[in-house]
Amino acid sequence: MKTEIQLTKDMFEKADLSNRDADKIRRPSIKYWPDVWRRLKQNKLAMIGLIIIIAMLIMSIIGTNINGFEYYEQDYSKINVHPNSEHWFGTDELGRDLFSRTWLGARYSLIIGVLAAAIDFIIGVLYGGIAGMATRKVDAIMMRIAEVIYSVPYLLVVILLSVVFSSAGAGTSMFVMILAMSLTGWVPMAILVRGQVLQLKEAEYSLAAESLGATKGWILKKHIIPNTLGPILVNITLTIPRAIFSEATLGFLGLGLQPPKSSLGTLANEGLAGMTVGNSYQIVIPALFISLIMFAFNVLGDGLRDALDPRLRK
Amino acid sequence: MKRYLLKRLAMSIVTLWAVITITFILMHSVPGNPFAAESKMPKVVYENLQKKYGLDKPLTEQYFIYLGNLLKGDLGDSMKSRVETVNDMIERGFPVSARLGVQALLIAICFGPALGAFAALYQNKLPDYISMIIAIIGISVPSFIMGTVLIQFVARNVDWLPIGGWGEFKHTILPSFAMALMPMATMARLMRSSMLEVLGQDYIKTAKSKGITRAAVILKHAVRNAILPVISVLGTTISNLLVGSFVIEKIFGIPGLGMFFVKSINNRDYTLIMGTTIFYAAILITMLLLVDIAYMFIDPRIKLTKEGR
Amino acid sequence: MEKVLEVKDLAVSFKTFFGEVEAVRKISFDVGKKETVAIVGESGCGKSVTANSIMKLLPMPPAFYKGGEILFNGEDIIKKTEKEMQEIRGNQISMVFQDPMTSLNPTMKIGKQIVEGIIKHQGLSKEEARKKAIEMLELVSVPQPEKRINQYPHEFSGGMRQRVMIALAMVSNPKLLIADEPTTALDVTVQAQILDLMKKLQEKLDMSIIIITHDLGVVADMSDKVIVMYAGQIVEQGLADEIFKNPKHPYTQKLLASVPRLDMDRKESIHYIEGTPPDLYIPPKGCPFYDRCDFAMKVCKDNMPDAENHSKSHYSRCWLNHPYAKAANEGSEK
Q1: Which residues of C58-74 are buried (b: 16+ CB within 10 A; e: fewer)?
Q2: Which of its termini does chain B have fewer beta carbons within 10 Å around, N or C?
Q3: Three-state SS for C108?
Q4: Which chains border B (3 or more CB–CB pairs < 8 Å)?
């Protein structure tokens, strides 16, 4: 390798050292959340999921009023009508319009999913946060309790509670359903939060903060929560489809919301009867919706997890 | 290790006791009385029934009697069926459910981890995308939907596959498959991410630096380690299979325990609900325990770390 | 001297989201028979990439060979297929990695991990291979090898694991051993033992060693030849004596000055090199050390100097070697 330049003596004078940049970072620097969002946007599947969720949300709000039939309206002259230009998703065996009922179902399914996730989140963060910050003894006891609760079969409890409350004449209301799901559902979140807190509590930056005289509350708020947010967000995104799935299963087992209300699960249950007499659209449509919602939340959750994983940063 | 085992066993017993107690309290807090539906019942009959099921005694006494019976393995009489006890029903239904469950589990275990490992080896290439699409569909489509789809589109078009019922092997094919899909997909996803993690480990590089074949590196070093987290969730997988069995048995009309359970719920047969719930819980808790113990033998590191705690 | 390995103009890059990172930029060196060559430099200077590229163990993609050749026994490694590489790895070239805690398979018994390579390269039966594995453990001074062979890695201490790693690398009497920071993760006392072991084995087995390290103590202890890398390039190369007694490149000088010594005055602070090496995402046009060099001149900013020989075996790449620079320095001193 030959250097192809003309060297002159003055080039060998001391360089001006004032504007050197030994610590300059040449790579474009990227902030955390915008970078997460950028990587999430690159994930086509996750974006499809997000679009489906947004569309579902909008339609579950306005969808029941679009084609002029109320979800509870019964028309005995038009029972089991297959999908047509008037009843877009057909009607059920009582002549109710399935388009409106499906969106009502989607509404309840989404509300149940989101609320259950929200309650899991609140209980989980509080319980896990307290256990993580508490002394070792308290922590151990709290975690044993959580472990016991968690090994109680989840759906069995939900079913039992639904039985109790629906026998009380209240019907299985949305409230009962969410309560039942949250009873054991918060444990994974609590374990996650506790693990993160423990890990971060010992991390050097919180030690540094503590040595500077920060209180535990301050550390929790300023250091621990922001760093735990990622995994929690992923957990929430994946809790929602689980709650929706549980609700659908309950509905399908006949333990869901009482008519004329509907969830996607109860619609599928009603549709199962329709399927045996040749009206398979009655089950295909709610089934498709359940699957779509589950799909959307799952791929979004996956995408978020990948986007948040610092090891995957390129 | 012995200490850990004992501790783990004690935990399981406490959990089971908790389930029993919760179930008992819940079932006895149902307002009204279990025979309310048959309200035209003469008073004498009603009182006899109360006596027969011990409902005339105080609740705490009832609880201890129930616990005592459980210890003897007696789950009590059904409130609706006059001929069969809860034990009889479980004896009749459980083998059917167990067979389905085992078949589904075998399908899931055979294909799930393989699919995940395959996807990880071809990360971001076509095989990865195909496997993960299958897995995503698997976790997005609840088993009751999968079951109805299979009936509608497979059983109705394939003559030798029945749309429901029980008796021969052919009756088990579609329900096993419908039940297997979700756990299979879950395992595949878990296996993929754990495999990706393992493939980035130093010891994989060491293995490669020994000059052994790619197949040996993958099978002996990568898969062997990557499968550990999949095994550790096997307990939960079995629990999910169980839930799947409720709906699958309903759809395919299979006379298993799940069907009894669903029926008992719809009939409000409280003793049967209690009995099956406790039976299910016992099975699940045992499974979780067994998986934990098995895991200890599979992962050589556990013995030390758990003991250390 | 007979050459075992010749690296000529080797360039290795990584494709990343932002573009190409040039991790190794046209380096050349060779390793003679029974010779120990040390590659030193800060983290991120390309030493590990160099080591892994000789074994073809870089993840490809994102890594790729951009140019040059790696001649081992006169044959170019870069052109070899994966199958051909399997015959070389662990047989003719072996590698010991930095972290013994993570470099052994946690779920496989030590014996089995050693036996694997023996069976592959020597075609011995299982029983013979087991005997050989015990021999190898004895060779690296692992006590009670018959018992140890049936244990798992977590039952070994860090130093013992590194011994196992070395045993594992030695099974087929390789011609070349690449040790990538073999002592960095170990306690100081254990470090010396491991280096000692490597030296002994080298004597016994007639092999060449490439040792990658940022620890100059290790270098002084072991090596015949020293290669100083900075920002993916070789900035100075020479016999160990030449580098330690007569370092020419300011970077080498600073590296040597940054080693704390016992005879240092207590008031004297430990020297360190300010700043960090440049990011190789866009490598600087001129001398990469420009930003951190005490002697930086105008010419350094945009021009990379050629190698200047100080002896048959010693060269450096620095503009200070240029006659003009000497003249200018003398001028300023007057």
Answers
A1: beeeebebbebbbbbee
A2: C
A3: coil
A4: A, C
